[in-house]
Design goal:
The chain is of the alpha+beta class. Helices cover about 25% and strands about 30% of the residues. The chain folds into three domains: about 90 residues, 3-Layer(aba) Sandwich (Rossmann fold); about 55 residues, 2-Layer Sandwich (Dna Ligase, domain 1); about 200 residues, 2-Layer Sandwich (D-amino Acid Aminotransferase, Chain A, domain 1). About 45% of the residues are buried.
Length: about 375
């Protein structure tokens, strides 16, 4: 039995554990929260910071392979473990590029990967000097997650929202759709992609509300998105999963928005909708197994189950019975005790052979299943 060390014990870790059971993989998890979703079900659960050098270094000593469910981890500890012969996937040098959105954007430019125009900024003074570049999105170099660390600056009137820390201004794109491709690459260089998905974001909180798979785009766009995802993974040299988020512009261009070097919100539906889920695929990739078949069984959607606005406290789920009575509806609850507005508390996968029927089910689920306190 192989021992896999996982930095992070949140919902992604919980779903990874479910896939690991089938392959009899012993997973040891590190998370600062003693009540994290993985705490009660992990074969080994260590409470500690995945940002602390000593904690991460000691944690990895008895693991054969170390992986992540969140990018914001201590890279120096991972580099030391790697230098001592531990397999660390995705590799620390890949995480170093992706952890900092400034470095990430420069990587795209250097490697001729399509992305929007951007300007690096170190202070409010820098941003004030580039008013002509607006409208743009101001993104923190480090620390942003799930919509945090991102502000839209439409004009000089929005400068009070800008970040004073090292960040970047990314030109606002007049896009038609936001799509994503998850690509897997193992140590042997084998690569497979999941079908392109179409993401719909919350208009204020900048996180995915729901998605449809496959995306309603032309076959040419599907192929182009797949090619960009593969090229990005190969140029990074990543081992593991890479989620590539793309803008489809009004004139048919595809531009990379951001990437995530792990399992991702845009692939949750694959647990029910595809031959191989993104979680099993990640395990296959980091453990050196052949990659699985990513073909979809049916059309699918994924609805993020977010804490309702105006409620903070012990989570209570309403509308569960009604939702479970709908054929092809599969809720996944993350086991978080406390809800707060727009916190990710779970997701619902919806499957159907017919797209219009699928959309009606999504609408019904969104109206029915709620998280309150």
């Amino acid at each position: 039995m192989q021992k896999l060390g996982l930095l992070g014990g949140g919902q992604l870790g919980k779903m990874l554990l479910q896939a690991a059971i089938d392959l009899d993989i012993h997973v040891k998890i590190l998370d600062p929260d003693a009540d994290a979703p993985c705490a009660k079900i992990a074969p080994e659960f260590v409470v500690g910071s995945f940002q602390d050098f000593d904690t991460v270094y000691q944690f990895g000593q008895d693991c054969e392979v170390i992986t992540i469910e969140i990018e914001n981890v201590n890279l120096e500890a991972l580099k030391k473990l790697q230098s001592e012969g531990k397999k660390v996937f995705p590799q620390p040098e890949v995480l170093e590029i992706i952890q900092d959105k400034r470095i990430q954007k420069q990587f795209y430019k250097k490697n001729n990967l399509p992305t929007s125009d951007f300007i690096l900024t170190d202070s409010l003074t820098d941003i004030q000097a580039t008013i002509a570049f607006l409208p743009a999105f101001n993104k923190l170099g480090k620390g942003g997650y799930d919509g945090r660390g991102v502000q839209r600056l439409s004009s000089a009137a929005d400068l009070s929202l800008a970040f004073s820390e090292p960040s970047l201004l990314e030109k606002a794109i007049d896009f038609d759709k936001e799509i994503a491709v998850i690509v897997a690459r193992n140590e042997q260089g084998e690569i497979k992609t999941f079908p392109t998905v179409e993401c719909v974001f919350h208009p204020i909180h900048n996180l995915v509300e729901y998605l449809f798979a496959p995306a309603e785009v032309s076959e040419a766009i599907h192929e182009k998105a797949k090619a960009i995802a593969i090229e990005t993974a190969e140029k990074l040299g990543i081992v593991g999963l890479l989620a590539v988020e793309l803008f489809l512009t009004k004139d048919g261009q595809l531009l990379i928005n951001e990437v995530a070097p792990r399992t991702h919100n845009s692939g949750h539906h694959t647990i029910r909708a595809n031959h191989t889920s993104q979680f099993e695929q990640h395990l296959r990739a980091v453990l050196g197994f052949p990659l699985g078949n990513t073909t979809a069984h049916s059309k699918a959607a994924m609805v993020n189950l977010l804490g309702e606005e105006g409620y903070t406290g012990t989570a209570k789920y309403i509308g569960m019975n009604e939702s479970l009575s709908i054929s092809g509806v599969y809720p996944f609850l993350y086991g978080k005790k406390i809800t707060k507005p727009f916190r990710k508390m779970g997701h619902i996968t919806v499957v159907d052979e017919d797209l219009e029927s699928l959309k009606l089910k999504v609408k019904k689920v969104k109206e029915t299943l709620k998280v309150i306190a």
